[in-house]
Amino acid sequence: MTSSPFAIASGPVARRASRSAKIVYGKREIIVGGSAPVVVQSMTNTDTADAIGTAIQIKELARAGSELVRITVNNAEAAAAVPAIREQLDRMDIDVPLVGDFHYNGHTLLKDFPDCARALSKYRINPGNVGQGAKRDTQFAQMIEMACLYDKPVRIGVNWGSLDQALLARIMDENAQRAAPWSAQSVMYEALITSAIENAVRAEELGLAGDKIILSCKVSGVQDLIAVYRELAKRCDYPLHLGLTEAGMGSKGIVASTAALSVLLQEGIGDTIRISLTPEPGGDRCKEVVVGQEILQTMGLRKFTPMVIACPGCGRTTSTVFQQLADDIQTFLRDQMPVWKKQYPGVENMNVAVMGCIVNGPGESKHANIGISLPGTGESPAAPVFIDGAKAMTLRGDNIAEEFHAIVLDYVKANYTPVHGAVS
């Protein structure tokens, strides 16, 4: 057997070339598309009319790392509350841009509530839900006119559960004329893609600049999403928003989202992502932000927080000390990031290893910036600590977790230069 004459390649293919759209609030600018990093966004599940409750959830999502937050604007009460939400966020020093999600009555709400239209940084329009028959084109045009008036970008978001029925009927008629008609699934794919692109072209004809349009074609099935976006990416150069319409709950939602988005991102497709997890009762809405970040970070596409490498455990590690320490360190690092990303630029590149026994513990720890190899079952009660590849010390006793916590904090302060004026 001979080796390959070529070096083994790694990493995703080059990002698909696309226009770039700018979403702005105050001095905060989020670029979607072009050469910008893939953006993580989320959506509230509060009643938007509850301005305080919605602002608090937006703050939580923003602190977790959501770079855009979408809110439902479904009635007059919600539209009237949007300026108050924005004002409350300003008082909390949260400058995340807000996206208004409109269905059915967006043309009326944007016209009747100009302060809402101004406070939002971006509009989301579903072309299947803007009106029926003759009203459809008029009401779509009215929403685009508002976007032009207030200089706002728009996501034209098509969903397979709310397709424009007239367009779907047209494509079905065209399919019936084919010598070899497509399957119903292929017809659905074509309808999704055609709706997105035709409405984007129509928006440009109405005066909306091409660099203010983002497209999405959301479905719930993993293979369906991959098929639709591969074709959509070939047919246009608008930035693309990725996400399953309904990913589901718990591990199912996380796995489905990761499976679908990872394939597309690896192929260079996708400019912003949202993980549409159904929260478990009492669950944290911010989990969808964390999952989105972890997809991008584990694929090597972005860095958000220091990575914690931990072994899964086995019969050698019947003690739960390493599990508890790994969880504690990971939680600590994520909790610190809203402050650290401002104070210690580059800290998101740090790697921390928390290992459970002598088999891989020392080796993995040496590869991390900071690593600890905890004693496994039957091993001597000693935990060597490695800093930048060299053994720095050995921890013993009952306070290993607390001592390692302090070592990590000291490493951050010593190795990541505080920005001017930051308090360490």
UniProtKB/TrEMBL annotation:
Enzyme nomenclature, EC number: 1.17.7.3
Cofactor: how bound: Binds 1 [4Fe-4S] cluster.
Domain (IspG TIM-barrel) ranges: 29-292
Catalytic activity: (2E)-4-hydroxy-3-methylbut-2-enyl diphosphate + oxidized [flavodoxin] + H2O + 2 H(+) = 2-C-methyl-D-erythritol 2,4-cyclic diphosphate + reduced [flavodoxin]
Residues involved in [4Fe-4S] cluster binding: 311, 314, 357, 364
MF term (GO), any: iron ion binding
Residue stretches making up the IspG C-terminal domain: 308-408
UniProt KW keywords: 4Fe-4S, Iron, Iron-sulfur, Isoprene biosynthesis, Metal-binding, Oxidoreductase
Pathway membership, UniProt: Isoprenoid biosynthesis; isopentenyl diphosphate biosynthesis via DXP pathway; isopentenyl diphosphate from 1-deoxy-D-xylulose 5-phosphate: step 5/6
Domain of life: Bacteria
HAMAP family linked: IspG (MF_00159)
Family: Belongs to the IspG family.
Protein name as it appears in the record: 4-hydroxy-3-methylbut-2-en-1-yl diphosphate synthase (flavodoxin)
